[in-house]
Amino acid sequence: MTSVEEPVRPGGRTRDAVRTKAEILDVATQEFARAGYDGARVDEIAARTRTTKRMIYYYFGGKEQLFTAVLERAYGVIREAEQELDVDHLDPVAAIRRLAELTFDHHEQHPDFIRLVSIENIHGAEHIAASEKLGRIGSPALDVIRRILASGQESGLFTADVDAVDLHAMISSFCFFRVANRHTFGALFGRDLVDPAQREHYRTMLGDMVIAYLTAERAAD
Amino acid sequence: MTSVEEPVRPGGRTRDAVRTKAEILDVATQEFARAGYDGARVDEIAARTRTTKRMIYYYFGGKEQLFTAVLERAYGVIREAEQELDVDHLDPVAAIRRLAELTFDHHEQHPDFIRLVSIENIHGAEHIAASEKLGRIGSPALDVIRRILASGQESGLFTADVDAVDLHAMISSFCFFRVANRHTFGALFGRDLVDPAQREHYRTMLGDMVIAYLTAERAAD
DNA sequence: TAGCTAACGTACTAGTTCGTACATTAGTTG
DNA sequence: CAACTAATGTACGAACTAGTACGTTAGCTA
């Protein structure tokens, strides 16, 4: 986490723009994820910070921009994780599985991120659209998928003619749903999709599904 | 739709509890889906109705209960659709594909429902938990899946040993993601998952994926 | 160390928003 | 048709909430 954990300087508030800003972002992330954009309270964010509401407006301008900043950072984290992905030494099947597992793990470990994305979708992705940072930075995962896919299709191992974006959607949908819809799914079907005891089961299931799809025998078209 | 479309009785407001209630539900569904629970405005719902805010409280008690009622009706609609599913005459592969396509179609045709479910998840499914109606009514789709799965596994056609709930999650995740995350996905990757021109492509992709998973050759365990 | 500015705090306001007290009437029933 | 009740409308208030005007100070720099 990018959380702020400096030791509390005993007696006497030091000035530290970087720390203050980061602390606001941390708390805001939690608060927005907890209650949604409209449900989140600026006062609540301020209260749970070592600074005041004034600083939120000083550094971010307003609630809307704060939410955008929160989104930008959250997307940054997953991009970093994707960048560390090194699968060039693996055969296509293993590489895809590894990629799927990374997505699976990241989604599970960052439920707040999932919630933020859900919230942003409720609002038509208007903050992403307004953000310069998020505007045109394609996911590193896409490049990786493209390479794996090309090599797998060339060797004839992969029969499906999906492109990278579609495959990314397929993998993400399962990982995302599992975390995002955990509550309604659990309430309606009595099964906790994020139950730790079932983790390996679903992780394997995802990989099996993707590989089966990519390598299935298909009628000539 | 269960929408209210009676001809406007010219001159003179007639009393009609059923119509008023239904009209409130219609508008509330739109408003909650548009802006989320906290973003939705009770006054706005009332304004777009032929009645007043007073009636919302008269019939539903409050914003919270109104949202619950909206959810209950939305879930009712999908259950009805699932109940009309008749696949007993089909072989397991065709039956599963038909089921997947029904889910696909319903999700696409009811984006408001998807948004409501997303919103409910942001709030931890607390309204479902509090609802008697939604508490313990398993999805009819689950029963159908169970039957198809049993027949497919018995005949040796299906090699995967998933259960009905997991398969339902797999199918739903793709359908749900496509609609729910349409905006962020489009903004980030420049592809509209709900583009009508791509509809058949994704519909087929879902079926292929599920069938490939169910029928894939697997190492003995 | 004087001066300056980025960083910070307090107190307040204008506008909103859920909810309700109170008044009224359509339509039914005896 | 009198009486009654479900259904409806109006007007208002208490509480909340994003945002700001104004004042203060830490710590750097000349």
From TrEMBL, chains A, B:
Q: Which residues bind DNA?
A: 41-60
Keyword vocabulary terms for this entry: DNA-binding
Which domain of life does this protein belong to?
A: Bacteria
Species assigned in the record: Streptomyces diastatochromogenes
Q: What is this protein called?
A: TetR family transcriptional regulator
Cross-referenced Pfam families: TetR_C_29, TetR_N
**UniProt xrefs under PANTHER family:** HTH-TYPE TRANSCRIPTIONAL REPRESSOR SCO4008, TRANSCRIPTIONAL REPRESSOR
Matches recorded under Gene3D superfamilies: Tetracycline Repressor, domain 2
Stretches assigned to the HTH tetR-type domain: 18-78
**InterPro entries from the entry?**
Homeodomain-like_sf, HTH-type_TetR-like_transc_reg, HTH_TetR, NicS_C, Tet_transcr_reg_TetR-rel_C_sf
Could you tell me the Gene Ontology terms of the biological process aspect for this record?
A: regulation of DNA-templated transcription
Keyword DNA-binding attributed: yes
Q: Does the keyword DNA-binding apply?
A: yes
Gene Ontology molecular function terms on file:
DNA binding
